[in-house]
Specification:
Helices cover about 70% and strands about 0% of the residues. The chain is mainly α.
């Protein structure tokens, strides 16, 4: 797994840097769409307006972009500069982590897996910059890199210290971080020669998942989701008639082809593991994928908006990209060369989907600007607008940025309202 400097590795590393560079360009071009709507607008307003750090739902390790915005605010930067900084910071942070993994820790294949995961399941979620689950596409790979450093030389202490520190980043950034971290620890546990430290980490992760909410009590929204999981178990009797499953499968082919790349890479990984007879890894990947999908099916059995439903499935990218790219790292030079083009194609197609998704977000921003202009022309300093009026304008506050019920996703005849729930 060491960085050897051979041409295939360099080509993959360059591909990763190109990806983050073009994501930075996209964040620059669409800074207004990424910062002036929904939760992002609310949180970034508080970053700029209020003193001190603004911590949402105890997610302490999601503060790094906020620190950069506050630094520029303290220097007297303009509002446009602050919003542009907020948009770019959410690309620069993962790019920095990628660079550390590849060039400092010299774990290129883990970094390449991070680049793949950055776009594999992301489309609309790219325009929800303050969704903390986005950090689970970067922090876990830093954790994996330190685990790899420890596995190479178990006698060194610094990988253990930094592995524990990066684990804290994962656990405190989002509740689902426990699932992702446990997946990664199990991934390294398979085939490891020194497993004691991995067992300790697994105990810490499970302990936090079970008792962490006692230390940091969940918000009302999170508490509602925990209750929804139990309530949603009964919804499994409906079989395939599930909003979350409909979203996942629908955006594989019927509505968009967004998840087609995910299933294609999962199929490749499955073939590789079966040919190697790596049954433990095969079981981990498939149990992890199915278990996580079932968790979302039950938690969101009443439905969700498109952007929020998409962010729920982002961790699937980690469960496919990390084990697959680690396997690619073990291939011979010729096989790695041949696989570079398919990987580049996947990254391009997923980036293309993210770019095209800006149209939907821009349309909503345009309608918001029209609404504000109308209020100003009417001489209103502040305006209160009813939900049905926003629906008339085409803003659909309950269909784009807030939680939907299944009834909002379906018409009175039971047919699915694709415009509300699947855009």
């Amino acid at each position: 797994m060491r960085f050897t400097g051979i041409a295939p590795v360099r080509a993959y590393i360059a591909l990763g840097h190109v990806l983050f560079a073009v994501l930075g360009v996209l964040a620059w071009m669409h800074w207004r769409e990424r910062t002036l709507q929904l939760d992002s607008a609310c949180q970034i307003f508080k970053w700029i307006q209020d003193d001190g750090l603004q911590i949402e739902a105890h997610r302490y390790t999601a503060v790094l972009p906020q620190l950069l915005v506050k630094l520029f605010a303290g220097a007297g930067a303009s509002l446009k500069t602050l919003l542009l900084t907020a948009s770019l910071a959410h690309v620069l942070l993962p790019w920095m982590i990628y660079s550390v993994i590849v060039h400092v820790l010299r774990r290129p294949w883990i970094g390449i897996a991070m680049a793949v995961a950055a776009v594999l399941c992301t489309r609309l979620a790219f325009y929800g910059v303050v969704l903390e689950v986005n950090y689970l596409l970067s922090y876990p790979f830093l954790f994996a890199a330190f685990l790899a450093a420890h596995a190479e030389d178990p006698d060194r202490r610094w990988p253990k210290v930094f592995a524990l520190g990066s684990l804290i980043l994962v656990l405190l950034v989002h509740p689902v971080g426990s699932i992702v971290a446990l997946f990664i620890v199990t991934l390294y546990f398979i085939g490891a020669t020194e497993r004691g430290w991995l067992v300790v980490l697994a105990v810490i992760i499970i302990g936090w998942a079970l008792f962490g909410r006692m230390i940091l009590p969940p918000t009302g929204y999170e508490q509602g989701l925990y209750g929804a999981v139990w309530e949603g178990l009964g919804s499994l009797r409906r079989g395939a008639d599930q909003p979350a499953l409909d979203f996942l499968l629908g955006h594989t082919w019927a509505y968009t082809t967004h998840y087609m790349a995910l299933w294609a890479l999962l199929a490749v990984l499955t073939v590789v593991l079966v040919r190697k007879r790596s049954w433990a890894m095969f079981a981990l990947v498939w149990v992890g994928m199915i278990g996580f999908i079932l968790l979302n099916i039950t938690a969101y059995h009443k439905g969700e908006s498109a952007m929020m439903m998409e962010k729920n499935f982002l961790p699937l990218a980690v469960m496919v990209a990390l084990p697959l790219v680690m396997e690619v790292g073990k291939w011979n030079t010729r096989s790695q060369f041949l696989s570079w083009i398919p990987f580049a194609l996947v990254l391009f197609l997923q980036f293309r989907g993210m770019s095209f998704a800006s149209r939907e977000v821009h349309e909503r921003l345009f309608l918001l600007e029209e609404l504000v202009s109308k209020a100003r022309s009417d001489g209103a300093g502040k305006a209160l607008v009813e939900t049905h009026e926003l629906d008339t304008w085409g803003l659909h506050p309950l269909g784009f940025g807030l939680r939907d019920s299944i009834d909002q996703c379906r018409g009175s005849s039971g047919e699915r309202n694709g415009d509300l729930c699947n855009r």
